[in-house]
Design goal:
Blueprint lengths: L2 H12 L11 H15 L3 E9 L9 E10 L4 E11 L16 H21 L5 E8 L11 H11 L3 E8 L13 E6 L4 H14 L3 E7 L4 H7 L4 E6 L18 H20 L8 E4 L6 E4 L8 E11 L2 E8 L3 E4 L8 E9 L8 E5 L17
Parallel strand pairs: 3-4, 3-5, 5-8, 6-7
Antiparallel strand pairs: 1-2, 2-4, 6-8, 9-10, 10-13, 11-12, 11-14, 14-15
The structure holds zinc ion.
Zinc ion binds next to helix 3.
């Protein structure tokens, strides 16, 4: 990762003046993004177009363009990983048609797709699963529907695409602190909490930025993928930009070194995820009601080299004992004591012996109370 190329990408995007989704220049911007990927040596780069209809444009349909560069996996090409961010911008203090520099929001996240693609290509890294570098169109008016991420997520769900993870960067360049005291929020989605633990540990390991636990189910492009049932993770600056959606959202007010560090951490998450088994998602627990049994369920792993789940339990979250290995997605933990808290963890492992972090949950088995006897109806 190189701060000079990150700076170049952000500055070039700012130089369009405005990247408001209803500007005439939107296809020029998309083509510029496409040219960047092509120049890196990517052969499969497409403008994936879709129509947006919102009240901001008097419900007149307008063509929008997601820019998608694909690096096909060598051994698991049908497993897809996305990294990206939206490239459109907005200005609520002036006319967004005229000026909306959007350096932090979100040329910075767009640069994460570009710089990660560039670094991977120049390192000659060949991923085992397929990576898609995506610059999303039309995020800013998402609450009115029809964003580029909603379009893509819906399409992936309809086509039954095996999307393993969507990594989103949206606003990753505002930092008022010295670099070694800077922080980034790692935001996550319900059911995929383990991704947050992995993402935080990798950010810690591969960048100088300190990861902080962020919000859950936050609105932005990653939320569109979560809504369609895909695992997602989302990074944004810990110190929210005071220049958000204003004419002051320019590169001069951004910290490009910080931005580059966040890109490093999110790229580490990408590579780790591509090369490791996927963690267990949607782990739920039900009390059987006999005071001695808890029932656990989770979503099936769809890795092509998936072997089995390893199960663990114990009385403390930090010291769980191995119980069993199974391929089923439900397990009854029996012989428990009524009213006592138990912890349960499940990991996925592959045929090479790689094992994921544990996804954990805790619960207390209770005997269901008997129906109350001797009840009398008293007229009011
Ligand atoms: Zn944004």
């Amino acid at each position: 990762m190189n701060v000079d190329t990150v700076t170049y990408y952000v500055q070039s995007l700012e130089n369009f003046g405005s990247r408001f989704e209803y500007n005439e220049n939107r296809k020029d911007i998309a083509n510029w993004l496409k040219d960047q990927f092509t120049a890196m040596g990517y052969e499969q780069v497409e403008l994936d177009s879709f129509l947006v209809i919102t009240r901001y444009n008097n419900n007149v349909p307008v063509m929008q363009y997601n820019v998608v560069a694909t690096l096909t996996g060598s051994t698991r090409p049908d497993e897809i990983y996305i990294i990206g961010g939206h490239y459109d911008s907005y200005n609520q203090t002036g006319d967004p048609h005229v000026f909306a520099p959007g350096a932090d929001d979100n040329a910075s996240g767009t640069a994460s797709a570009l710089e990660t693609a560039r670094a991977i290509k120049s390192a000659g890294y060949q991923p085992s699963a397929t990576i898609k570098f995506v610059c999303f169109a039309a995020e800013e008016l998402m609450l009115s529907g029809n964003s580029g991420s909603e379009y893509m997520a819906e399409k992936y769900r309809e086509q039954n695409i095996n999307l393993k993870l969507m990594i989103n960067n949206d606003m990753i360049a505002n930092n008022p602190r010295p670099l070694n005291e800077s922080m980034v929020s790692v935001n996550y989605y319900t059911g995929s909490e383990t991704l947050k633990d992995i993402a935080m540990s990798l950010m810690d390991q591969y960048s100088v930025v300190t990861p902080m636990e962020g919000g859950r189910d936050v609105w932005t492009d990653s939320r569109s993928f979560h809504e369609e049932g895909f695992p997602a993770i989302y990074y944004d600056e810990y110190d929210f930009s005071p220049n958000y959606h204003t004419s002051n959202d320019v590169i001069a007010n951004c910290d490009m070194e910080y931005c580059t560090e966040v890109i490093k951490g999110s790229a580490a998450m990408l590579i780790y995820s591509v090369e490791s088994p996927s963690p267990v998602h949607n782990l739920n627990v039900f009390d059987f009601g006999d005071g001695a049994t808890l029932v656990f369920t989770w979503s099936p792993n769809t890795d092509s080299d998936f072997k089995e789940y390893k199960l663990y339990s114990g009385r403390s979250a930090d010291s769980l004992d191995y119980i069993d290995s199974i391929t089923d997605t439900t397990f009854n933990l029996t012989g428990l004591s009524d009213g006592v808290k138990y912890f349960f963890g499940v990991s996925a492992s592959d045929f090479d012996g790689n094992e994921t972090l544990l996804t954990k949950v805790s619960a207390v088995p209770n005997k269901l109370p008997k129906a109350p006897g001797g009840v009398q109806a008293i007229p009011a």
